Amino acid sequence: MKTVTINHQVLPAIGIGTWHLGDQPQQQAKEIAAIRLRIEMGAQVIDTAEMYGNGRSEHLVAQAIKPYSRQKLFLISKVLPQNASHKRMAHSLKASLQRLQTDYLDLYLYHWRGHVPLAETISELQHFQDQGLIRAWGVSNFDLSDMQELWQLPHGPNVAANEDLYNLGSRGIEYSLLPWQQQHHLPMIAYSPVSNGDQLGAHLTQHPTVLQIAQQHQVSPYQIMLAWTISHPNILAIPKASQPQHMKDNLAALNLNLSTAELAALDQAYPAPQHKEPLDIL
């Protein structure tokens, strides 16, 4: 099984994304069941944010994890840029903790850059880590220049992870950001790792190469895309799955090994970037 290490914890390389979960009351029972099934199948990481449904996702996660030991889970949430200041971050963090019904987060991410000086945001994140309210902090939607700026700050090298959009059809981070993070032993959390099928115009699930490899393994195209994402070292993928069957499919990708020839075929179908590209953000 593929794993990733974040803040000295070895974790399964596929976690649970929760964007849009909790938005529709009539779907919440299925969504809770899907999360619980995935936990029972070995998932540890659950990724949420105060932005997701204005806290509804965090409420849903709290309901889903009630039967399980908190110490066996790795909870991630995120602070919005307008709340990432000395004046407002404490309120945001405590509200997230209350909604999640926990007294600490394993990882707290700065969701994306805003107008608050980066040094102020990082100082606050480090303060909450020192207090024990969060075990570690990280960033999201940061590109290479952002990471280099962060690294020069007093507590910058304490960053535990960066979460960016990354999938077979969106490989821009491979040109310079991903090598930089690998050089600095900084994990990447990949959101939208299966690209919603055709996001960014990639039409991944319909590509003949993806379909052929999926058929060879007797799995879905989504599982091939997920296996490709975590085939790279030190990457945690957080696909969203609101149905129990999707959760089972996600788990199967943990043990799906693509051959060198299959990886080369996917590279030919969706080539790695040959120049710097703007960071893809959803």
From TrEMBL:
It holds the Pfam family Aldo_ket_red. Substrate binds at H111. Residues 13-270 form the NADP-dependent oxidoreductase domain. The record marks K78 as: Lowers pKa of active site Tyr. GO terms for molecular function: oxidoreductase activity. The active site is at Y52 (proton donor). PANTHER family: ALDEHYDE REDUCTASE (PTHR43638:SF3), OXIDOREDUCTASE, ALDO/KETO REDUCTASE FAMILY PROTEIN (PTHR43638). This is Aldo/keto reductase. It comes from Bombilactobacillus bombi.
